[in-house]
Amino acid sequence: MTGNFGVRKNQMRKYKREIPLYFLVAPAMILVGIYSYGAMAGIGIAFQKFVATKGLFGSEWIGLTNFKTLFALPDFLRVLRNTVFIAFFKMIGGIVVPVIFALLLNEVKNKFLKRSIQTMVYLPNFLSWVILAGIFVDILSPSTGIVGRFIASFGLTPPFFIGDPKWFPGTMIITDIWKTFGFGSVIYLAALTGIDPTLYESAVMDGANRWKQTLYITIPGITSTVILMTVLSMANILNGGFDQIFNMYSPSVYPTGDIIDTFVYRLGIQQTKFAISTAAGLFKSCVSLVFILASYWLADKAAGYRIF
How far is Cα 199 from Cα 203, in angstroms, rounded to an integer? Predict the structure, then answer.
């Protein structure tokens, strides 16, 4: 009995020490509850003939009619195809470019130069797409932009990167990779520091040059991290990047640049078709959930990564 009492007393002391931590996290939990979980009640709009004046509880329930209407829209398949195309190549570029950059930067021996380069490529990650959109519009202008003038100097006609449907998806992919690869490279640089230095010493003694060391030591050493980041990024297969595209697109590039997020914005905010736009958003969330579950399963099988 005395032993059980002592254990309970220690547990009570532990709980008392943690009380300030519960108060510290309480505001964040309340905000998450209100804006993340409380807002989920709005999902019901996707199954209603929603009338704003009647509200969520006064509108008529119509089942899956909104989803049937959504899938029957002539633009929906095009928007879905654009979303998958842009998001897929952003995902591939977001893996390949940071890995290559991290491998190259890892070969720089001057610490000051190495840190300076890393800081310089990391800075764009802190700039919003509102700012970057204005910069890219000026830079990529076919008449006054520096890129357009450079191309024109060779006697060629500069393409309208942001206004031509043929060039717009590639422009979105490349500019997004440029913005985010500095942040992604930090993860792989951290993985590179975890490789045992004695492996390189042994390789040098065996006559391996830098290319052989990279091929047989460095790349295998970060393979598990690359696999993990790849499978986790699968959950973003329907996230084409609303902030970026919304600030840079126009009606002229809708055929190749319109994605689910911008499509939902126009349906819900501009055309006030709240029920159909909610159905589109719910469809995207369900597909993303499936990819999230699949990605965590693959992460567990391929890289031994588990949340619980």
Answer: 6
